[in-house]
Amino acid sequence: MTTFKRHIDTALLPDDIFSYTDMQFYNIAKQIVGASAMELLEIQGIRCPESFLLIPDVFAILDIKCADLNCLREKLCLKSDDDTYVVKPGIKSIMNYFRELIMKKYKNMKISSKNKGSNSTMSLFTAAPHVTNETFSTQEQQSTSLTIARTSMLNYESFYMIPINENSHRNFIINSINKWCEKHYSGLSLTEGVDYYLIFTIGDDRNFIAKIKCGCGSKISLVRLRKKFQMSNFYKHLVSLTCTTVENNRKGITSNKRCENEIDSMNSTTAKRYKCNITCISEPFGAV
């Protein structure tokens, strides 16, 4: 089976891309990812390449319940029968390609800068003593752009150098569900391995993908925002009419309380009888 290797053509980006902000950056993004995906960057305030690289998942915001996102969500996502939105694969792919373009552009700039070496400025003075201020200005802009790019990429790489293992994700999700239960339902307690099951896999980008198999049988995908998984999809499922997990759990709590009350009542009756028997035994026989 032949493996397809994607060609990253950095010529699609201008050499000074890292100096672009706002409309300059959005125009470039629009040419590559399309108008709708460009709107997604704009609505999040992602104004430059550095900001774009430092956000691991630009689609995570679509999981937030916000009326301002409804129109954009309809353009970028497919809606499932259980009202869950999934980003269209083609849009996700082209956005990943745009990220790879910027990263490779930075790496090429870094290599080019190393090859020129520290003697490039001296060579320029020797070969062309008549260089104008305008030329130096252009070189300064390119140098500044490269410095910004280098700082951004260092931050981006260091951000991913701190891995989060499966146990950390698992503990975070379990604690989040416990807090949600305490906040919304008195006495409700959902137990991992009984009321729901956590499923972790590794994606193509070597990051964890998390799904929850609910006690009712449904599987819910969790969206990752920065380094944490967002739980709103699962909470939305729990309160939907199709899920019986919360209802069954609360019935179990009611049933357990009823049993406890019956046991307490039986224990109380037994104690009274025992006390009565002791009293009768303690009275002297044949008392006149």
Q: What does the model show?
A:
With 288 residues, this protein is mainly α. It folds into 2 domains: 10-160, no CATH class; 164-277. Helices cover 56% and strands 10% of the residues. It is built from 10 helices and 7 strands. It has helices at residues 23-33, 35-43, 49-53, 70-76, 89-116, 120-127, 133-160, 166-184, 232-238, 245-282; strands at residues 77-79, 85-87, 196-202, 208-214, 219-221, 223-225, 228-230. The strands form 3 sheets. It has a 3-stranded antiparallel beta sheet, covered by helices on one side. A two-stranded antiparallel sheet has the order 1-2. It has a two-stranded antiparallel ribbon with strand order 6-7. A hairpin with a 5-residue loop joins strand 3 and strand 4. Helix 1 runs antiparallel to helix 2 (35-43) and helix 5 packs across helix 7. The longest helix has 38 residues, at 245-282.
Key features?
single chain; 288 residues; mainly alpha; 2 domains; 3-stranded antiparallel sheet; two-stranded antiparallel sheet; elongated
SSE layout and pairings?
Blueprint: H1 23-33, H2 35-43, H3 49-53, H4 70-76, E1 77-79, E2 85-87, H5 89-116, H6 120-127, H7 133-160, H8 166-184, E3 196-202, E4 208-214, E5 219-221, E6 223-225, E7 228-230, H9 232-238, H10 245-282
Helix pairs in contact: 1-2, 5-7
